[in-house]
TrEMBL record:
Catalytic activity reported: (6S)-NADPHX + ADP = AMP + phosphate + NADPH + H(+); (6R)-NADPHX = (6S)-NADPHX; (6S)-NADHX + ADP = AMP + phosphate + NADH + H(+); (6R)-NADHX = (6S)-NADHX
Domain of life: Bacteria
Gene field: nnrD
Entry binding sites for AMP: K373, G374, P375, R376, T377, G402
Lineage start: Bacteria, Bacillati, Actinomycetota, Actinomycetes, Propionibacteriales
Domain YjeF N-terminal: 10-202
Molecular function in Gene Ontology: ADP-dependent NAD(P)H-hydrate dehydratase activity; ATP binding; metal ion binding; NAD(P)HX epimerase activity
Domain YjeF C-terminal: 210-459
Organism, scientific name: Aeromicrobium camelliae
Name of the protein in its database record: Bifunctional NAD(P)H-hydrate repair enzyme
Length: 470
């Protein structure tokens, strides 16, 4: 599991770690990790420019620049403000042969050490000019700890920022490296240990990784299992206008661990669903989880009857327009940004600017678990836990992909995972399945359902490839 913490918690952990290692000791660990990454990701013959701000973030980079020079590389450095700079770092950089220049010119490689966890979101003055230069030239950027300009705790981007291809972050990820615009500006996030782990509080957010399958072995049927013990998922989805949503939602559910799928819908549609998927049982009966809404009619009834069963419910698409006053933590709402904006009666852009805050507002308003779909799908639980999904491909922006996801999450719920786990495992594996499908080019959503089976298998067996999962 990748963990992310808030700045206040990281500062507290650093203080505790510094009590034994000393502040210089901590910084030297950060410098060693940074130097190691830079030596690997920057081509031998490149002359990178290091953009250095006033704090310890700049200090880290000055020491790393010095270390690179001592290894025979050429490095340019530009100082945001000569009056405010890590003096010991600058002295060592100069002594090691770093060249101080006015600013970036024709550099193709940038090390962003303007601001670290001491940053306020947004850049102005010289830092904003540098951000503008980066936007125009599009060099390869390595961010030190965080990309400068983003909100470290929330990933907002209220003004200019320096988006990175790689972010080398110390001790633990920061929430703003994962969510919202910050998440999309951080590139590949490499967490490097500097000895904070024993001192860190519970993470503010987590992301499932390829190696986490062992945690979810409970969904593998044991020797005594039968179809009912594996869980039954009920689906009320589809309508004359969106008959395909019923098929795709069923396909998603059948790719999951549940032992049976029940389908509820008008007789013609139910008959077509059973024609395509003969294992499906049409009609109501006992279920361990419901999925309502994909491609559904504009009616409150499916959600009302699902909630009356007192089992976990996935509430998607049309059913989102009919939420009662209050829900329960085992209800998973699955809006995209536009649907979530409608729930809050705000503009979609507001949700996209700060998805974590927006999702939290819905969680608080309804006391339900929220899976906010997007390039960085978020899952937020009423108990405060947050998961961010890092798997996927832009090709998943295809009609019907959400129907598959809703069915798959329903199956995970029926198999006994709690709402946060079902939603985040579902989003993660759905993303990996999309990435796998995309190897063959653009794909229709039913291919995602086809891939999910194998992806779930590889995840649980511990053989999922980390590379394809990002
Ligand atoms: N504290 C520690 O134990 C360690 C810190 N390390 C490094 O130190 C960094 C944190 O250093 P600092 O606390 O000095 O913080 P920064 O290096 O982020 O610098 C903060 C300074 O920049 C100014 N500033 C922030 N955002 C601004 C903005 N948008 N516009 C204008 N000025 C702005 C602040 O007023 C403050 O003076 C970490 O990110 C990491 O790179 C590492 O060396 C590891 C150890
Ligand atoms: K930085």
């Amino acid at each position: 599991m990748l963990t992310a913490h808030r700045v206040a918690d990281i500062r507290a952990a650093e203080k505790a770690a510094a009590a034994s290692a000393g502040w210089d000791g901590l910084m030297q660990r950060a410098v060693a990790a940074l130097t190691d990454v830079l030596a690997r990701v920057l081509p031998e013959d490149a002359v990178p420019i290091v953009l250095v701000g006033p704090g310890n973030n700049g200090g880290d980079a000055l020491f790393a620049a010095a270390a690179l020079c001592r290894r025979g590389r050429r490095v340019d450095v530009a100082l945001l403000d000569r009056g405010h700079v890590h003096e010991a770092g600058l002295a060592e950089a100069l002594a090691s042969g770093v060249r101080v220049v006015d600013g970036p010119v024709d550099h193709d490689h940038v090390v962003d050490a303007v601001f670290g966890i001491g940053a306020r979101a947004g850049l102005d003055g010289r830092a904003a000019e540098w951000a503008g230069w980066v936007e125009g030239r599009r060099p390869f950027v390595v961010a030190v700890d965080v990309p400068s300009g983003i909100g470290v705790d929330d990933g907002v981007r209220p003004g200019p920022s320096i988006p990175a291809d790689v972010t080398v972050t110390f001790g633990t990820a920061k929430v703003g490296l994962l969510v919202g615009p910050g998440g999309l500006s951080s590139g590949r996030v490499l967490v490097r240990d500097i000895g904070l782990a024993p001192h860190l509080s519970a993470p503010a957010a987590e992301a499932i990784e390829a190696g986490d399958g062992q945690r979810y072995r409970s969904i593998v049927p044991g020797p005594e299992a039968h179809k009912y013990s594996r869980g039954v998922v009920g689906i009320e989805a589809g309508s004359p206008a969106y008959a395909g949503a019923a098929h795709l939602c069923v396909a998603g559910a059948q790719a999951g661990p549940a032992g049976m799928v029940r389908f509820v819908g008008e007789p013609d549609l139910a008959a077509r669903v059973v024609d395509r998927a003969p294992e499906v049982v049409a009609g109501r009966g006992r279920v361990q989880a419901w999925v309502v809404g994909p491609g559904g009619q504009d009616s409150p009834d499916p959600l009302i009857s699902a909630l009356a069963d007192d089992v976990p419910v996935v509430v998607d698409a049309s059913a989102l327009a009919h939420l009662p006053e209050r829900l329960r933590p085992d209800v998973v709402l699955t809006p995209h940004a536009g649907e979530l904006a409608r729930l809050l009666d705000v503009e979609r852009a507001e949700v996209e600017a700060d998805p974590l805050l927006s999702a939290r507002r819905v969680v608080e308003r309804w006391n339900a678990t929220v899976l906010l779909k997007g390039p960085r799908t978020l899952v937020v639980s009423p108990d405060g836990r947050v998961r961010v999904n890092l798997s996927g491909t832009s090709w998943l922006g295809t009609a019907g992909a959400g129907d598959v996801l809703a069915g798959f999450v329903g199956s995970l719920l029926a198999s006994g995972l709690d709402a946060l786990e079902a939603a985040s495992v579902g989003a993660y594996l759905h993303g990996v399945a999309g990435a796998r499908a995309a190897r063959g080019g653009p794909f229709p959503a039913h291919v995602v359902a086809d891939e999910l089976r194998g992806v779930l298998h590889d995840f649980l067996e511990g053989t999922l490839d980390d590379e394809e999962a990002r």
